[in-house]
Task: inverse folding
């Protein structure tokens, strides 16, 4: 009998809400890295992800209580690190940033207040662009505040380690402001493959 590949969980719109799931925990914070998007970045890994994609590279961060609570001290450190001229921006990963909107919105709004558009904001999400547009107001608010969305669940059957900034071929690197302006998904113009 052929073995079937297990697939990630697929929520309905508004089925998973940050207000019900998030514990406002942080799995990790990595300043000054080169792997989580374009340029030198500060990366915040939030805790909690119910997608449970088979082959997930960060299984520990699926637990909403993994790591440490988000603190004002950490936020202040992130802002200080972003203040360096050589840092291009912030990356939100996880876990699932769109199920940790209490933390992510607070930080992103502060970044926009202090830096305007001088620092870009990337986010990875198991949600697709289309799913986020149909979901809760907090998810949509966060989406409007970021620059780049790498969307979609990691699919082990489509795993490709040669892809730029993503792990499986179904995932897209989306230019968020351009997508809203044009009313359709616009792929990042610096995509190599």
Result:
């Amino acid at each position: 009998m052929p073995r079937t590949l297990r697939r990630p969980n697929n929520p309905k719109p508004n089925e998973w809400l940050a207000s019900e799931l998030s514990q406002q925990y942080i799995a990790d914070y990595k300043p000054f890295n080169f792997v989580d998007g374009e340029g030198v970045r500060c990366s915040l890994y939030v805790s909690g992800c119910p997608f449970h994609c088979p082959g997930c590279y960060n299984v520990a961060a699926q637990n909403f209580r993994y790591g440490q609570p988000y603190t004002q001290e950490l936020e202040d450190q992130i802002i200080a690190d972003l203040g360096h001229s050589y840092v291009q921006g912030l990356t939100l990963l996880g876990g699932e940033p769109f199920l940790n909107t209490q933390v992510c919105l607070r930080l992103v709004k502060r970044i926009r207040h202090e830096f305007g558009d001088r620092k870009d904001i990337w986010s990875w999400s198991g949600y697709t662009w289309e799913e986020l547009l149909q979901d809760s107001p907090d998810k949509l608010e966060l989406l409007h505040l970021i620059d780049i969305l790498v969307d979609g669940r990691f699919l082990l059957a489509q795993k490709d380690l040669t892809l730029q900034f993503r792990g499986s071929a179904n995932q897209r690197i989306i230019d968020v402001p351009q997508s809203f302006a044009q009313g359709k998904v616009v792929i990042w113009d610096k995509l190599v493959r």
